[in-house]
């Protein structure tokens, strides 16, 4: 399995590094000297420059073979796995938040950009000229990230913009294949995406994915295809998985926080507290307030 690209899935084998308040960090692929102590994997985008090692990027319903060198863009809300071949991968990667890149009004929303959007083309195969140019940018980015210059974030944003615009000018790789175990992969990626939304850590933000159709859209599959795959592999419907996870999170928030029932309802994606009360009582036999008082 892949050694460096599982950051959006919390893979412990990936080299880790501390995310600073600048919301940007840089690392060399295969460098095990750094540690990632804290980051919200739902918020950080990733750009990887793979210089060596053949690998394969796998989404819910498609896969892409990646012969190095390649430039790879990954979105934190689109689950994937990355398998490497026999040769150890080498190159660079950086992770950054939408907020970091857009300070000063730069670029469009990343999820709507052609590089990161659902259904987009995330793999760009490079010729020698492109490889040399992009490697020089990544190396300069590393120097800035390690330096003390007070305006280094502005320089790094410029370098990220150069990488993004260089990729937009390229023709993306299109050598897709359908994985043999497509249903298992779709079901597993759905479960990964479901789990990514938890734990809920803010009462001011509503869960972005609430229904089966929301998950299907993120996975770029038809909702009926998603439902069939999840039912086939797990024996439960997509909606049942979502409801079970929402109920478990609701109970945890009722036990371990002092949030009001209304705040909990909002954070879990319920537009009205009455909808949350009905949901909770239907699936637990008791109201949220009665559950909290019984503890």
From TrEMBL:
An example of a Pfam family matching this protein is HTH_18
SMART domains for this protein: HTH_ARAC
Q: Which residue intervals define the domain HTH araC/xylS-type in the entry?
A: 184-294
Q: What Gene Ontology molecular function terms does this protein carry?
A: DNA-binding transcription factor activity; sequence-specific DNA binding
> Is the keyword Amino-acid biosynthesis assigned to this protein?
no
User: Which keywords fit this entry according to its UniProt record?
Assistant: DNA-binding, Transcription, Transcription regulation
Entry's transmembrane regions: none
Coiled coil residues, start to end? none
Lineage, top-rank taxon, reads: Bacteria
What is the recorded name of this protein?
Helix-turn-helix domain-containing protein
| Native organism | Dyadobacter sediminis
